[in-house]
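Feature request, filed as a ticket because there's no other form

It would be nice if the structure record came with a short human-readable summary line next to the tokens. Right now we just get the raw output. Example of a typical job, pasted below so the devs can see what we mean:
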Amino acid sequence: MFRSEYADVPPVDLPIHDAVLARAAEFGDIPALIDGTDGTTLSYEQVDRFHRRVAAALADAGVRKGDVLALHSPNTIAFPTAFYAATRAGATVTTVHPLATAQEFAKQLTDSAARWIITVSPLLDIARRAAELAGGVHEIFVCDSATGHRSLIDMLACAAPEPQVAFDPVEDVAALPYSSGTTGTPKGVMLTHRQIATNLAQLHPAVPAGPGDRVLAVLPFFHIYGLTALMNAPLRQGATVVVLPRFDLEQFLAAIQNHRITALYVAPPIVLALAKHPAVAQYDLSSLKYVISAAAPLDARLAAACSERLGLPPVGQAYGMTELSPGTHVVPLDAMSDAPPGTVGKLIAGTEMRIVSLDDPDKDLPAGESGEILIRGPQVMKGYLGRPDATTAMIDTDGWLHTGDVGHVDGAGWLFVVDRVKELIKYKGFQVAPAELEALLLTHPGIADAAVIGVYDDDGNEIPHAYVVRRPDRTDLSEAEIMMYVAERVAPYKRIRHVTFIDGVPRAASGKILRRQLRERA
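Raw output as currently delivered:
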């Protein structure tokens, strides 16, 4: 069993809105949120006051403890106010992908039994259609303005009393994001107030922040990574969050330059852009102090190329999953120069880990040997909503959550994630990690992006199949060249056996490769 080097932190038994905004009065006029597109700014005092007024209006509209409210929005400076207002009114917030279809949205509304929706006017038609398909939705509110719908702006004038809700942080679910877990269809992940708030306290010693720090929020708040690293954590500590609604490279680089961003929490596709795109050289990024990547594997060579280009300490990584609130590992800010290349970090405070054999789950493996990563700690989810069997399959009777990830630990406690258990390719009995081949493919100067999946050949063998995006100046890049490039650098059983050229690798908003789409295509 591996344990954190950090001292344990006591459980934080506060509602998430109080855990995050407890020091809002102290931070006062410090900018809490800045719209990276137009500069609109909310101070800490305003965020605190606004979310309380909106909470009063939601309660006056009928929102009660135990209700589920769907927050359906891209990143905006109104998103945190909506989230904290809903939780203060006693609701559980289920965050919805802003690009979800009406049918996908309706499934989530039905599964979560959501009775309320907060959206934005550009997405209102989809929200209305989803509500019609699902039924049971009492009212749709908007963050901005739309005829026939109450807006958060109007709610600021509400004179109703602030709701006084009796919370049980241990049991009450604050957030209900949806995750596929290790396999299968999306499931509602029940994260309690205590689990989310305690995870923030666990992360703090390794990645502290404070007034003067400026974080760029381009990864989506609706995803647990963005919700934690770009919203809850910085606002808990007095940092300033500059918000962008989506990733556009030029807009992203301009925001770093114009707002003097000090910290980036990103996913590997953004690291790839920072390392390789020519536009990066046109902007002043000298305010940056560090970059942390998470949500998907990041190749050590790509991380090094990015940090060298930006003149920064090595790009750090973090590890976790929605079911873990989400953090378990991170490269500490004070150890970024010392961390071995490719590591996702060390255990954060109060967290335990086991590495167990893929062939014998009861067998614990020592440092240096790869197996499935198991996690135990106060951040482990309450469970999957309405799916006790799936919960039991994920969390064993001793409280260990089986991540479905394969990794190993070195002698100093640094974790290296190899791949997903379910995504390992079994070629004639040998295990092939797609992430390893993807990282190698990205070192080819003619390849802009790549993904690898296992497909079956005519003999019934599972073989590595690469989907490759050519760089614009290498339209002549051939399947044979790629296969030879890989063959010269890996063991024979790891060789790419087939290549398909595509315009873009399908990815989730978090940056994870959507392998299921590639399998369907295959």
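Something like this underneath would help us a lot:
Residues 226 and 412 are 29 Å apart (CA to CA).
The longest helix spans residues 44-61.
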